[in-house]
Amino acid sequence: MPWPRSHGIFFCFYWTNMIFVVFAISLLFISIGYLVNKGNAAQLLSGYNRLSEEERKKIDITSYLELFRRFHWFLGIGIFIGSGVLYFSLGEQWTAFFMTSFTMVAYCFFIWYGLRFYKGVNVRSTKIALMIFIILTVFTTGFFIYLLAKYPL
């Protein structure tokens, strides 16, 4: 890739649309962590919004939302740093692979870890969804690895 002659303060980097996608997705995940709070959790949190008032009282929503906020902050920062390093060292294909796989693996962990906050509530459908998500994560990651091996950079 040829270096551009002048792009303002970013003259030393070759920028494409991917770096803006990385920034936007990172910002989106960080924002999600701060937009959901105790006041709007009943409308925005999947699963929690389908529970009755009795079942909602069994959930420690304050601790869950703290985990939710920290997780999305970690996810946004992790995607930004990891994708930035991969973008400038290995290219856009590896950046896309990392962003997809990292997000899917992180959400598998988050769903599994978040089950501990649902004491006394039937979480069978959540466990089924988690298993499906794990299978999709393995398939997607395997597919990316296959494509990157078949079509090297």
Automatic annotation (TrEMBL):
A Pfam family this chain is assigned to: DUF3784
Positions of transmembrane segments: 13-36, 71-90, 96-115, 127-149
Keyword presence, Nucleotide-binding: no
Record has DNA damage as a keyword: no
InterPro entries attached to this UniProt entry: UCP037672 (IPR017259)
Keywords associated with the record: Membrane, Transmembrane, Transmembrane helix
Protein name: DUF3784 domain-containing protein
Lineage: Bacteria, Pseudomonadati, Bacteroidota, Cytophagia, Cytophagales
